[in-house]
What we know:
Elements (H helix, E strand, L loop, with lengths): L2 H7 L3 E4 L2 H9 L4 E6 L8 H15 L3 E6 L21 H15 L11 E4 L1 H4 L4 H8 L5 H6 L1 H9 L3 H4 L1 H16 L3 E5 L3 H15 L6 E5 L12 E2 L2 E2 L9 H9 L3 H11 L4 H5 L7 H19 L1 H15 L9 E4 L9 E2 H7 L6 H9 L3 E3 L2 E2 L6 E2 L9 E5 L3 E7 L1
Parallel strand pairs: 2-3, 2-5, 3-4, 5-6, 9-15
Antiparallel strand pairs: 1-6, 7-8, 10-13, 11-12, 11-14, 14-15
Helix pairs in contact: 10-11, 12-15, 12-16, 13-15, 15-16, 17-18
Amino acid sequence: MTLYDELVARGLIAQVTDEEEIKELVNNGKAVFYIGFDPTADSLHVGHFMALCLMKRLQMAGNKPIALIGGGTAMIGDPSGRTDMRQMMTKETINHNVECFKKQMSRFIDFSDGKAMLVNNADWLLDLNYVELLREVGPCFSVNNMLRAECYKQRMEKGLSFLEFNYMIMQSYDFYELYQKYGCNMQFGGNDQWSNMLGGTELIRRKLGPDADAYAMTITLLLNSEGKKMGKTQSGAVWLDPNKTSPFDFYQYWRNVADADVLKCIRMLTFLPLEEIDKMDTWEGAQLNTAKEILAYELTKLVHGEEEAKKAQESARALFSQGNADNMPTTELEEADFQDGKIDILAVLVKSGQASSRSDARRAVTQGGVSVDGEKVTDITTTYAPADFDGEGKIVKKGKKNFRRIVAK
Length: 409
């Protein structure tokens, strides 16, 4: 099976510009491709995960990845998939986020010996002269076509700012720059980036002639069986930074995916052989729980390393077998958390992040969804003293699989 055929079999490819040419490039290790990551936070998240895995797959087959960090485009903000305008960030915040991205990407991409490149589009976008840019690329873009682009449709309803309108031009210019400077012949990205990517291929052809071969391929968005983007929890995004989402929580996120989504996620995100995954297609019932463990372990190993993956798996299994929970996420209560030497169960749930508010915690308790050290708590006035959390602390469980160890200073 060729690499391209494998990408199709794994359900990764959404749209391509020239399929035969792209097949030729990726199957023979001739693709010099880039994927862009706008540094809108200080960590990559699950939404970036599929792109990073795709870069790893292609690099393993001899292709050369260029990881483009959008230090310049982040100053404008991508309107794709949004109904409101992104909050503008300072240069200092963007630069900090760029540095954080660089460290995380090295887990997936081998940057040694010229095997890959890491570039920041701030290096060329921030030095552009506005009038010169208008004269150079302005004639290559049709406003009529841009307004029909999917990435602008949602924003048009509430009002598309001129700032955001320029995002497609900036992303297209990135491809144009990388093509000329590094011989980059392909751009990959999420399926919501299709219009922006076509803008790049068209700009290259219009500026450099019909023989300038530039191609685009979009990756299937990671959606659950309900059609919603995966990688979000009640408390926010699932981050790749262990300080923002612990390896245990990362593991638990994938361990808790719906039965209908687990095999799709294994196929799209893991590096397990397709033959092995195909055998799982007939799995059902308890076997799907095994599949979820495989998914959670493989992805945690990819992001956090084998040792952390083993710890997370052992800790998760220990919870269900009532064993020790040394590697479980821990919340430390401080003196200020206790009122008159007591803290109630609602405050414990909020402090540990298992509830977003006291009213959310109250619902969980009254509906019978909370237990402490294996005993169900249904009284919202239940309180604890600091001494109750001595030693290994208390294990608080909300729902079926949300556990925290609570200790006091």
